[in-house]
Specification:
Blueprint: E1 2-10, H1 12-16, H2 21-34, E2 38-44, E3 51-57, H3 60-72, E4 76-83, H4 86-94
Antiparallel strand pairs: 1-3, 1-4, 2-3
């Protein structure tokens, strides 16, 4: 599984429909599970972004498909970064010449 950190900003549509957020979050979690992934952390934050989510997905392609499906709903815009757990990063560093 690959880990990704997703930074999300609400669109105008998303903030107007904020009362339906609990249902949207539940639907997103089910959609991620249907793609073979899992949302391992979700936070509402203050500052530049409105939400931060941490997800594990089986591949970059599955992650991209999921984010495209979220974006198509019109409630969010996302910025995504691949995250490497410490043990994976240690293995990468050990391979340096």
């Amino acid at each position: 599984m690959e880990t990704y950190i997703n930074f999300m900003k609400l669109t105008e549509q998303g903030i107007k429909d904020i009362k339906n957020f609990p249902q949207r979050l539940e639907a997103a979690a089910k959609g991620m599970e249907a793609m073979g992934g899992k949302i391992t952390g979700f936070y509402a934050v203050m500052g530049e972004y409105d939400y931060v989510a941490i997800a594990e997905v089986p591949s970059a392609e599955a992650g991209m498909a999921f984010l495209l499906s979220l974006g198509a709903l019109g409630n969010l815009r996302t910025t995504t970064q691949r995250a490497f757990p410490a043990n994976e990063f240690v293995d990468i560093v050990k391979k340096l010449p």
